[in-house]
Amino acid sequence: MKIICLWAKARTSDSCFDDNPYWAFIEPAWAGNHISEAILLIPDIELEYYQIPVFDNYNKAANFAHQQEFGVDAYEDNARE
């Protein structure tokens, strides 16, 4: 399981040591061909260690995750349908 990127949800604390919620976009697992999504609670200081892209907009994060996993061409073909 690999986290592709994150979307920063509403912050619960301004401290870099307190957990804040992020919407995680997770690569497809053994079965299926869709991006999974989950809420991740993690402090900012630990998040910097993993170097995961963080977006401030859900649509940008979702587009990035789909393009990383399925390629730009596959994603654009699905978007037109």
Number of folding domains?
Answer: 1
The overall pLDDT, averaged over residues, is 83
The span between the termini is: 29 Å
Number of helices: 2
Sheet with the most strands: spatial strand order: 3-2-1-4
The biggest sheet, with number of strands, parallel, antiparallel or mixed sense and barrel status, is:
4 strands, mixed
Give the CA-based shape: elongated
User: What Rg, in angstroms, do the CA atoms define?
Assistant: 14 Å
Q: How many strands in all? A: 4
Indicate the structural class.
alpha+beta
Percent of residues in helices comes to: 25-40%
Strand content: 25-35%
How are helices and strands ordered from N to C? Answer: EEEHEH
Uncertain ranges: none
How is this structure best described in words?
This protein has a four-stranded mixed β-sheet. With 81 residues, the protein is α+β, with helices and mostly antiparallel strands. The protein is elongated and about 40 Å long. The model has no long low-confidence stretch (mean pLDDT 83). 37% of the residues lie in helices and 30% in strands. It has one domain (3-80).
SSE blueprint:
Layout lengths: L2 E6 L10 E8 L9 E8 H7 L3 E2 L2 H23 L1
Parallel strand pairs: 1-4
Antiparallel strand pairs: 1-2, 2-3
Spell out the key features of this protein.
81 residues; alpha+beta; 4-stranded mixed beta sheet; 2 helices; 4 strands; 30% strand; elongated
Give a concise summary.
This protein is 37% helix and 30% strand. With 81 residues, it is an alpha+beta fold.
